[in-house]
Each structure stands twice: as C-alpha cells, then as structure tokens.
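Materials and Methods. Structural model of Sugar ABC transporter permease. The 307-residue sequence of Sugar ABC transporter permease from Paenibacillus oceani was retrieved and submitted for structure prediction as follows.
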Amino acid sequence: MSRHNGVWKRVVEHKYLYVLVSPLLVFYVLFEYMPLYGLMLAFKEFNFAKGIWGSEWVGLANFREIFRLDDFWTAFRNTIIIAVGRLLIEFPVPIVVALLLNEVRRAGLKKFYQVVYTFPHFLSWVIVSGILVNFLGSFGVLNQLLELIGLEKTNLLVQPDTFRGLLYGSSLWKDMGWGTIIYLAAIAGINPTLYEAASIDGAGRWQQMLHITWPSLRSTVVILFILQIGNTMSSGGGGFDQIFNLYNPAVYEKADILDTYVYRRTFSIGESYGTSTAVGLFKSVINFTLLISANRLAKRMGQEGLY
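The predicted structure was written out as tokens:
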C-alpha cells in the first residue's frame, strides 16, 4: 500500500508534467497500440461480413502465400537495397555538414546556411515530387533545355537504372538539413572550455574537431544510426510518400518496396487483407530484430544504446 501511495504522491507532485505528456500518450494508444488489434488479420481469411473475430483462422497460410510470390521478393530486395543506399549515402552527409557549419564563425552566415539547408524539410513529398516532375519529366525544364541545344530528350522518371539515384538525391536534398540541425544541437551542448583549453595548447580547428567535437558527437550519431537500422524495412529506411509519389510501372522492378507493394496489392489489385497484413507483420518483426541487434552491437562496442 505504501508503494502505491508513493507512486500516487509522485504523480500529484508532477501533475503538470503528466498533463503535458498526456496528449502524446493518448495519441500512441489510439494510433499505435490499438491498431495492433488488426494484426490478427495476418492469421485469418478476412471477410467483411463476418468481421475480424468472425473470420476464419488460417494459421500461417497467408505467410506461405506471400512467400511464394515473385513480386514479394522483388519488393523485399528493393527495400533492402534502397535502405542500404540511404544508410551509406544519406546518413553521413548531415554529420559532415554539421561539423563544417560549426566552424563558421559569422553568426549571420551560419544562420543563413541553416535556413537554406532546413527549409526543404518542411515541404511535403507531394510538392517535391511535383517539382521533380516539372524539371525531369517528359515535358520538363530539362528536356526543354536539351531540345534547345539540339540534344535527345530523356525522361529520368521512367528509367529504372537512374531512379534509385533520383530517390537518394531528392531525399538528401529534402532531409539533410533536419539531420544537420540535430547534430548542431548536440555540438552546442559541448563545454566551450574544452575548445579554449585545446586552443591554448596549440590545437588547430581540425584537431579540435577530431579530438573534441567528434568524440562528443559520437553518442548522438550511434543512437540515430540504431534508429535508422531499425527503420530499414519501413519504406526502404525512408518515406512511403516519396516513392509513392514518384514511382510508376516502368520502375517497379527497381523501386517497388514492401510498403508500396502492400498498398498496391490491397487497394489497387484488391487482394486479401490477410496477406497484406502478413507482409506488414513480417517487415515489423525484421525491423524489431534489426533494432535490438544494432543496440546490442553498439553496447558491446562500448557505445551508448537506446536502453
């Protein structure tokens, strides 16, 4: 009884903090935990008339069905390839940009760069996709310029060999600034006296960056890296909106990922909700496994993990 009284006492003492966090808790309960109820569809032959509980249990039949489909394995392969590409290309760039911006001494110029880099993050992928279509499409600015100088027209949006590069480039342009802001915030928390002491000892900017800034930033980098690993199977480590608004049947072989595959299979083709849910559960299990594995590996290497 005393233990429960102690818990209630702490709640009363910090009631305003709990009030502030309550909308977030309600959001997670409504939109993150309650939908887990629908995972049963992965093990059922769903029938709208019977509802979820009334539909027939089919065990692992939905999983066996999707594992037999070539389209599923194509989407799975594309998801892995795009996620690895994002990790190798997009993850390091904000770190480098943050380290370089930290060396800019003029406050006005530094803020200008931050605004320029961060602004694209607040544009929706619908807008960004529209910009890309207007520039790179069949009747876009690029083709008008090529025609003007007498070169052959091209449509990069329907070329499978260049489409992934287009994904990486547009995602990097849009979200690089947001990652940079996170790392700059971590750098701002470094004790300034460390730089002063290093400067007195004769350390230059490069040495200070290498021996003070980077070691202090490493824990933030590791945590964001773990989160990125745990997001591998979710839209190829990026966003569903990007690929959905850019891809087309001509690039399905290179760009169709599990999320777009599930969407198209469920709402366009009209296939079973059970098999689509099975795909979602499959990728969630892999994401969870990768997250736990990356966290354990980070701890074994002496770094801070998520928990």
